[in-house]
Inverse folding.
């Protein structure tokens, strides 16, 4: 590999040779639209009018496009090829929400590393990932791509994914540039409606929505992508306070910013710009270096500069940042990937990694009478449901290069695991998740009746989550609930496995079955992992990265909520059905809750059962007083009081009881995944720095205030093993 040398010097030399038109060309990203390389595209490549392409092209087309750009243009600047390698390239890992459920950032880093290797070999230089939008509304389809509701957990996964994609050397042949997206506040869309307005007070923005991006910048992400939404009237793509103010001036981000798909031009629809020309001017002024897909930059920047409306140095600075990433990737040195290999079949190593990730992502929500793990002696076994043998849906949203022929479906995984040691019978019951055709019900119910156990695989097709796929009703789609109810009526124990891209309101169906496993969309090896979990080869160890609401009306519901002046548990709770006729106004208590469902979630953040049981004790802290800049050492003993080896995720939560602004009742500030043999005890130690207990005060300064704090350690956000300490001046 040729020595990259002094990138800044090389960028400066190249920039000095470029015409204005060629500079603007570097700021233009267009999507390959299929159908081969048009004459117009060839012309624009030869003119140096395109700096990047996306949506991955067949490798041979990719190679020819790159060849034209490098060999037939005046300066031969390689294109940076982008693609949504969100949770895998050819080997598909669990969707990011599922990866977050592993609470294992190093595992997610390994998945990103593997994906980078596969993508780079196919000529991809840049992924539009990790997505790190805080998501507290499961109606929002893109919660599937997020790492959930919590800033601390999301930050750990965001930095891990950046490290995974980029590796230690961005110029290495298996490294691709990461892209922290969508900056910022996209997950706060009103009503969970994708693209809708986000009204986020600055303190909430800085304390909840921005920390994962700061973690990604500190981890060295090469790029950042803006979001489609506005924040309080200003679209992020035209938001100078956000892009130049926070991202560049406060955080020192040195990479480049790309818009989201046509989000520059969409500022006209937002009503923030009169036309594309003004959109180009505002986006550049705000700090967008590269425009994805729309052509405001290509069409108007040259005239804006000649009219003196845009200073040429803004263009130079944008191009300098883009070229720095291209040089940093070694694109000028790498043997131009003209012969990018078409996507090869997944390696055994990557498939094993995908299985590990799937195994750790699945969350055990219910296990009545310890029906799980199933014994193969419980034969015959009925495998039923629209997602039991579907090789496509299990891959989830944002799958671009995963292939169904690589997938192990749940039915295939169970059959492979059990061989002929048990009788396995299969009935879909419903052809696909949204189907309301009950024509196959009778056969499925009869099969259940004749079996000793039923494993029902239901949930959402992949298309029901992801971008532009918000849902207002979060029940199981189609007639799945009805089918589950009829099957449960057959009297055979039922294990329900849900594959979905979001929390669903599954309270009703959960009551009708004996066990519930939540598998998200677990990817290429999901079926193999589920077989191992259901039959006890491995115990489930996933924990929820997002709160499950009882019903949509409860949304937003998340654990790190404020206490309010009338906390939900301050007076006895009288449920709707227990209210006496003509009850006195004051008789129902006066607290922040609902008459019909109270205030508890269906399942809390951090929750997940195991085939073992874990006891926490011996909580000790190194001092009951610490100062700013100091650490508090927290140790706790965790014992596996069960009879099988298993893994637990110990979680550390903290509360600042009183501060200059109100603080959440709990905030996750540490977690550790630990493997414990049956009856084994381990001591887990957290080093809690006072610095991370701060927040943005009334003047928007990040402060760590003195005062009383509580901390808890446990297996989910209801942790009640408590210690108290103070931060003192
Ligand atoms: C999309 C998404 C973004 C993605 C980009 C390129 O609309 O919002 O996450 O990376 O376009 O596909």
């Amino acid at each position: 590999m040729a020595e990259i040398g002094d990138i800044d010097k090389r960028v400066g030399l190249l920039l000095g040779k470029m015409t204005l038109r060629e500079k603007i060309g570097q700021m233009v990203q267009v999507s390959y639209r299929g159908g081969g390389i048009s004459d117009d595209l060839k012309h624009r490549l030869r003119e140096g009018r395109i700096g990047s392409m996306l949506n991955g092209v067949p490798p041979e087309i990719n190679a020819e496009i790159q060849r034209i750009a490098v060999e037939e243009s005046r300066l031969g600047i390689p294109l940076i090829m982008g693609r949504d390698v969100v949770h895998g390239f050819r080997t598909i890992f669990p969707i990011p929400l599922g990866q977050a459920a592993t609470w294992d950032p190093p595992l997610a880093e390994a998945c990103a590393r593997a994906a980078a290797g596969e993508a780079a070999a196919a000529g991809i230089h840049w992924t539009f990932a990790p997505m790190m939008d805080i998501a507290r509304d499961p109606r929002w389809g893109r919660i599937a791509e997020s790492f959930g509701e919590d800033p601390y957990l999301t930050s750990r996964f965001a930095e891990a994914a950046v490290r995974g994609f980029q590796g230690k050397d961005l110029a290495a042949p298996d490294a691709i540039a990461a892209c922290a997206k969508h900056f910022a506040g996209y997950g706060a869309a009103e009503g969970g409606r994708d693209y809708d307005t986000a009204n986020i007070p600055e303190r909430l923005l800085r304390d909840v929505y921005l920390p994962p991006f700061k973690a990604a910048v500190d981890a060295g992400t090469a790029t950042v992508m803006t979001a489609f939404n506005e924040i309080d009237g200003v679209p992020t793509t035209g938001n100078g306070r956000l892009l130049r103010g926070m991202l560049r001036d406060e955080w020192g981000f040195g990479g480049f910013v790309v818009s989201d798909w046509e989000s520059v031009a969409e500022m006209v629809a937002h009503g923030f710009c009169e036309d594309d020309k003004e959109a180009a001017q505002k986006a550049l002024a705000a700090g967008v270096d590269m425009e994805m897909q729309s052509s405001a930059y290509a069409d108007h920047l040259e005239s804006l500069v000649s009219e003196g409306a845009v200073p040429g140095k803004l263009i130079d600075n944008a191009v300098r940042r883009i070229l720095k990433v291209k040089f940093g990737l070694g694109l000028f040195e790498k043997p131009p990937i003209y012969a990018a290999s078409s996507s090869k079949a997944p390696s055994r190593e990557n498939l094993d990694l995908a299985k590990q990730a799937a195994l750790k992502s699945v969350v055990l929500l219910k296990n009545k009478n310890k029906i799980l793990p199933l014994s193969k002696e419980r034969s015959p076994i009925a495998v039923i449901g629209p997602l039991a043998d579907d090789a496509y849906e299990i891959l989830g949203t944002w799958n671009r290069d995963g292939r169904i022929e690589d997938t192990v479906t749940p039915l295939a995984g169970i059959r492979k695991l059990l061989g002929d040691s048990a009788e396995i019978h299969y009935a879909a019951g419903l052809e696909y998740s949204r189907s309301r055709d009950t024509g196959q019900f009778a056969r499925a119910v009869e099969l259940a009746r004749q079996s000793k156990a039923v494993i029902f695989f239901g949930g959402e097709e992949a298309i029901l989550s992801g971008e532009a796929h918000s849902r207002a009703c979060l029940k199981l789609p189609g007639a799945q609930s009805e089918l589950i109810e009829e099957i449960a009526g057959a009297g055979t124990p039922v294990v329900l496995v849900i594959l979905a891209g979001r929390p669903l309101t599954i309270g009703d169906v959960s009551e009708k079955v004996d066990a519930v496993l939540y598998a998200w969309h677990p990817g290429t090896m999901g079926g193999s992992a589920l077989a191992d979990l259901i039959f006890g080869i491995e115990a489930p160890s996933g924990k929820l990265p997002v709160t499950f609401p009882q019903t949509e009306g409860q949304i937003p519901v998340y654990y790190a909520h404020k206490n309010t002046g009338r906390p939900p548990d301050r007076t006895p709770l009288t449920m709707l059905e227990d209210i006496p006729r003509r009850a006195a106004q004051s008789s129902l208590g006066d607290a922040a809750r609902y008459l019909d469902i109270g205030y508890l979630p269906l399942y809390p953040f951090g929750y997940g059962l195991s085939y073992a049981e874990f006891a926490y004790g011996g909580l000790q802290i190194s001092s009951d007083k610490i100062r700013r800049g100091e650490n508090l050492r927290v140790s706790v003993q965790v014992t596996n009081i069960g009879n099988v080896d298993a893994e637990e995720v110990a979680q550390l939560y903290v509360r600042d009881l009183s501060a200059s602004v109100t603080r959440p009742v709990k905030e996750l500030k540490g977690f550790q995944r630990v493997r414990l043999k049956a009856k084994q005890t381990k001591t887990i130690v957290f080093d809690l720095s006072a610095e991370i207990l701060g927040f943005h005060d009334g003047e928007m300064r990040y402060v760590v205030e003195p005062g009383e704090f509580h901390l808890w350690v446990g297996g989910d956000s209801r942790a009640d093993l408590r210690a108290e300490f103070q931060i003192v001046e």
Summary: The chain has three domains: 4-328, 348-534, 614-728. The chain is about 30% helix and 20% strand. Residues 429 and 442 are 8 Å apart (CA to CA). The first strand starts at residue 28 and ends at 31.
